[in-house]
Every structure is written in structure tokens, then in C-alpha cells.
Amino acid sequence: MGKTAVQLAKSNNTGTSRFKTFFKELSKQKMLMLMSLPFLLWVIIFKYLPLWGWTIAFQKFKPAKDLFDQKWVGLDNFKFLFQEQQFYRVLRNTLVMSSINLVLGFVTAIVLALLLNELRNVLFKRTVQTISYLPYFISWVVAANIVQMALAPEGIINVLMLKMQLIDHPVLWLGEGKYFWGILGATEVWKNVGWNTIIYLAAITSIDPSQYEAAEIDGASRLQRMFYITLPGIKPVIVLILIMNLGHILESGFEAQYLLGNGMNLDYSENLDIFVLKYGMQMNNFGLATAAGMFKTLVSFIFLIAANNIAKRMGESRLY
Amino acid sequence: MRTKKWLQTGLAVVMASALLIVGCSNGNNAGGKNSESGGENSEVSTEPVTFTYFGFGANKDVMASDTTIGKKLQEQTGVDWKMENVVGDASTKSGVMIAGGDYPDVISPVGELAKFLDAGAYIPLNDLIEKYGPNIKRVYGDYMNKITNEDGNIYILPFTANVNGYLSPPDPSSTFWMQRRVLKEFGYPQVKTLDQYFDLIEKYQAKYPKIDGKDTIGFVTFAGTAGEFYTITNQPMHLAGYPNEGSVMVDMESHEAKLYQGTDTEKRWLAKLNEMNGKGLVDPETFTANKDQYLAKLTSGRVLGYVNYSWQVNDATTNLRTAGNDDLRYVALPILYDEGIKDAYVDPPSFVNNRGLGITVSAKDPVRIIKYFDNLLTDENQKLVQWGEEGVTYSKNAEGRMVMSEEQLKNRNDNDFKRKYGFSYFDYEWPRYGDNSVYEDGNAHVPFNQPEVAAINYTEGDKALLKAYNLKTFSDFYAEPVERPWYPAWSIEKEPGSPEQLFSQRAGDLQQKYYPRMVLAAPGGFEAVWNEYLAEYNKLDVKGYEEFMTNKVKARVEGKW
Fold this sequence. Notes:
The complex is a heterodimer. Chain A is mainly alpha-helical. Chain A has helices at residues 2-28, 30-48, 76-83, 85-118, 122-133, 140-151, 156-163, 177-205, 209-217, 222-246, 255-260, 266-269, 272-281, 286-313, and strands spanning 59-60, 71-72.
């Protein structure tokens, strides 16, 4: 009896002392805490409170009604989602298109950054860079229109290929489902490559020039310098961006697929977002839309954590 | 609103500093209430005020007072409108509006009505009409049961209430169009059946495979974007002799509504398209072109035949007309499956009760708004929004008939002028007389329904064509419409998220997926795709949908709208 009391007192003691040190530390960093308080509040209000909205996924939600007037339906929305035949098709499309975008976007951006870095003529470098990131600022509506025009039976792509005798008769590019993923990948690259390059170019500038000089003296060729200095130099940035992008694995974009999609390539172009728009938003079925959103968040979460862990194991820089 | 409440509760619990935000939103509410009471006090005044208008149709944003008509109406009532229209996806916009609970003063919801009703966005107009709307009562009196919702309230004032009788338009809007030079080439033959229609195109194409150095396009229709896929799916119904009811055909006697999707009626149309495609007459871009590409194609003059409602392609037809070569323009013909069928392309007298303008719960001063509507519905103002001012945009002849000079008519046809003057904004999406109305003095409500105007509106080519067929107007190609008391079935509202709506969406998805495959299938491969389509389609609850529609149609026949 006495023993336990002593033990209790002891543990209590350490508890309070831990508490004490914590508060001591806290009061030391008072200013820092005060300064971060508004941001903490901001995160709670705008990032955590809205999570209440997830309850919509379990309701037959009617807008403009109180929480208590809503009809609760349990997991019905999820059941509908996972039992829907189309769901697996759109999920496949989403994953494939997103992976294509991820890989292509990565490779092209890094290659372009490496190449631009090797350019010595500043004027030419600037021109290339400007041209390559201009499409980023075009809205998807305009971009999709340009793509549709170029891919039309009498559009420039068909004309060129006919002239070069690669094909015998015009191809209906947007009418063949199997071409869609390729077209989308190419379009995304065309639109975003310049913009994605910027961050790598910035990372490259932070590499110590003396390394290059040393390598040059040692007789390293241009390619070798790229491989042994530039690439390792920007590796942390690459890994970090990869992890962050993996968090968006279920976001393959919406506008491009919506605008370029049609009845003929539906099987390949329709992604999760379009499915949610059609069966959720357009039918006023916000419950289903929220359920799909929750599913997306969950998958993204898994990917993000997995990627981060792998990076940690490999001893790379990581998100947290 | 609800999220705001959550926000408030959450904040109150979490941090005292959040009071700031709560205070702000309370402040806003208070502000709203103040102006509301202010409005009620100045009930009778014509003190200047600006309300907000939101349309889900297609239009450009404008201040009403910047147009001639809007200015005149402002002088009468003191009310000005900030008119906004949807940009991009309508259902997303309506969703955002509803979720935010923050509405403009009035909304013309077009296809989004059910959602807004569901969300309780509109105020009932019954009492307001009773108190302040003598003209509204005059115009909508005969339609009261059709504009009253099941809960006994009136929420919107539709656009199709015909006043003083029925005048049918001289130019039909449906749907099989043929280039006039094709008819001319073969000496203006009678074209009645689908086979005859395509035969003629085939013969012409064989004779002139190239036009201006480019390949002739035999036939095209607009099925490249999901929103207008109905262009191609609606045709079986018309070919079988039914008017535009949407996805069903309604029997005249038994009032049974039957889906034609997945039946031989639909199959015949697709089989024909497949056959024509085999001969290289169907433009493959039918299923991929966007609207700009499609309209450009029509304006090029290379297309021999197309299928569309005229309102879908107004820009192209106006441009062709302006270009001045009548041979390159098109004429609509009543094409049917077989000779014996009577066509029903011209809409019967109808009342569309799910398109209209309503006052929202956010409206600051419903009384002044309803008074504005009422004032808009006087005979004079209806003339103003359709015809403009006498001596400026129209004239009166010795017999008191309203007529237009060629100059005036040119303006009435010009999109820019129509916007500047305000016709584009006021002649449709407001409480109004229906298109087929007649004024008490016998003049037509819509200028182009006035025979005198229609006569000037015809070009030399129009007259030559009509003479060749010995007809007076283009409507004379068509049979007289037959009265259908439930018409149109497409305006039957389906509750958001209901099984019927789900059916429509699924069936539509199937059509969108299989139509191109069936039309573009290699000769001989059609049957296989059709069977695949049928198997998928029959998995849906066809019976349930037909039952739903039949019940609604029967209810309408009994007067329950």
C-alpha cells in the first residue's frame, strides 16, 4: 500500500516536472508562440472546421437545411459509389492519366531544366524559357480549343502526317479512345513544362559553381557534369516534389478531360471528377460527391505517407 | 447559411478571438435587414434602386439602364438591373449559389429550377400577385394551375403564356435541313422520307464530290458535346411522327408514355446513319467537333444536310444569310420514316412551366420587383420589348398593322444592335407574353410572326424556293400541329437524385457511348454493337421510368400540372 503511494507520488512528481519544463520552455518562446497563434487559428478554422462537411457523405443532403433536418443514410452513398460499374472504369482512367502526367511532367521538366542550364547564350535561354511557359497561362478552354483544332481531320497534325506519308488518310485523333491518354499527356506537357521547370532551375542556381570548375579541371564532359553534379544537386527538390505530387495521385485534372472528352473516347477520358460532377453535383447529390471526395482524400493520404516513409528509409529529404 | 452557423458555433467554442468574425457576419446580416425595411417603407416610390438579375441562359452581362429598353423601363419604375449570366457549367454555378445561400434578387434558372426549388431559394408569389399584379393575373390567369406548385405556391413566372389566341410561326425550327442547291439541282423534288432525303444527298455528292476545292460533306449533326447530344438522340421520335417530348413518345389516345430508346424506332435511325457512313456520307467529326468547329463547318457551305433545331445554330444561319448566297442556305423539311406518317415537327400550342423568372429569398424588396414585373406585362411594354419604339424600330401602316422597313428589319436581325437596344435582354427571359400571342389590335406579339414582317424578311431565294413548291411560308411544308394537352413531356420535372433522374443520366451515358460506335461501325458490324447496347440498356429500369412519365402525363391531361 505504502509502496504504491510512494510510486504514485513519484510518478506524479515527474509528471508535474515534465509539465513544468514544458511550460518553462513555452514561456521562453512566448513571442514565437504568439506569432504562430493566428496561423494555427487559420488552419483550424479553414482546414479543420470544414471537415465537419464530411458528415454530408452520410446524409441524403438537402442544401439550405439545418444539420438536424437532414436525412441520415449511413453508408448508402459509399455503397452506391463502390457498386457502380462505372466507378472502377473512371478510377482506372484517373490513376492512369494521373500517372502519365506525373511521370511525363517530371521527366520533361527536369530534362528541360538541365538543358536550359547548359545554355550559355542568355538571350536564347530567356526566349526558350518564355515560350515554354507561356502556354501555362492560357486557360484550359482556349488550350482545349487549340488542341481540338490541331487534331481535327483537316487540322495541322493530320496535314503534316499526310504530307510526310506517315498515314494514308486523316485520323480522327479524338475519336479513338486509345489515343486519348497520349493526347492528354502531350497536352499537359505542352501546357505545363515551362512552368514546372522554374523550380528546378531555381534549385540548380543554388549549386556551388566551384564544383563545376573542379569537375571541369578533372576533365568531366558536359554530360558527366550533368549526371554527377547537377542531378545530385537538385535531388532533394526532386524527391520533395515527387512526394507532394503523389498526394494528388487521384487528381488527374478536370478541365482537360471534360473539354476534350466526347462520346467516342468516353471509356478512356472520363475520370473520377467528371463522374462526381455527373452523378453528384449535377443531380444535386452532394452526399455522393462528398463520399467520393473522402475516398480521394483517403487514397491520397495513403500515397503521401507511403512515399514519405520510403524517402525516409532511403535517407532522402522528406516532407515531415 | 448552415455552414456559417457551424462556423459560428465552432468559433465560439474554439477561441474568443473568433468573435471578430462572428461579429462581422452579424454585421452583414444587420445591414441586409436595414435595407430591407428601408425598401418596404418606400413601397410606392419610384426612387432609383438597382436589383440583381441572374440568368442561366446564354447572354452577356450588362446594366439594364445601358440598353434603350432597360432605360425606358427604369424611367417608368425607377428600377435598374445588374444583369449577370452564367459562365461555364450551369449546374456547378447553381450548386455554388445554393451552398452559399446567397442569391441575386431574381433568378431565371432554366434547367436548374428543380435544384433551386429543392433548396427553398424562391419566395412564393401568390400574395404578391394578388396584391400588386393585375397584369400578371391577366397574362397568367388561364395558366394558374400550371404555374402553381404541388405545395400550392407560385414560384416562377414562365415565358410561354400565350395571350389572345395563337399565331403559329412562319419559320419552323425542326430539324432535318437540306442545302437549297441540292433541291435546285434536281428541280425541287418532294422530299418526304428519310430514304429520299439521304438518296438526294448521295446523288448530289456523287455529282459534286468537291465544292470550292474541298470535299463535300454529305451529312453532319452536332453530337460532339455532352450538353447537346439530344440533337442526335431526339430524331427517332420526330421521324416516327411525334413532336419534341424529350425521351418519350406519348400515345394520343391512351396517353401512355413510351421510351423509344432501345426500340426499333431508334434502331432504324441509327442503322440508316450507319449505312450512310458506309458510303462516306456522314462526317466523322459529328461526334468530336466542338461547337465552334461545327458552326464553322455549317457556314462553309460544304455541308449538304444536317440535323439541328434552328436555335442551336442561329449564329451559322444568320451568317449564311448575311453572306447573301441563297443557294448555300438551308431549308427545313418534314422528314419521316414512311410516307403514311403525319409529321409533328411544329410544336403544338404548349406551355412550358419549368422555365421562368422567380424572386429569391435574398431579394431586398419583393414588392417593387413584382410591381416591375407587372409593369413589364402591360400591352405597351410587351410591344416595347419585342418591337421597340414606333417610328424608330418599327412603323405602322395605314391599316394600323405593325410593319418594319428593310432597315429596321436588318437591325432587328443584327446581334450587336439587339444587345445595344436591349432586345437580347428583355425579349425572352422575363415574365412575358408567349411567342404565339396576339395583341388586341390583331398584331403579332413576336415581329417575325407578323405576316407583313415575315414577307419582307424573305429573300429572293426564299421566295423562289417557296414558289417552286407553291407554298406561302416555310411552315407550310409541315402539317398543322395537333393539340396535346400535356405537351411538352420534356418539361416534366424530375426530382434531383430521384430514380428517374438517375435513369436519364445512365441512359444518356449509354447513348453517348454507343451511338458513335453504331454509326461508325463497319458495314455488317452494326447488329453486333446494337445488341451490345441493347443488353446494357435493358439492365436499366425502363419500366419504372415509363410508369413515372405516363402517370405525370395523365395527371397533366386531367389538369394537374
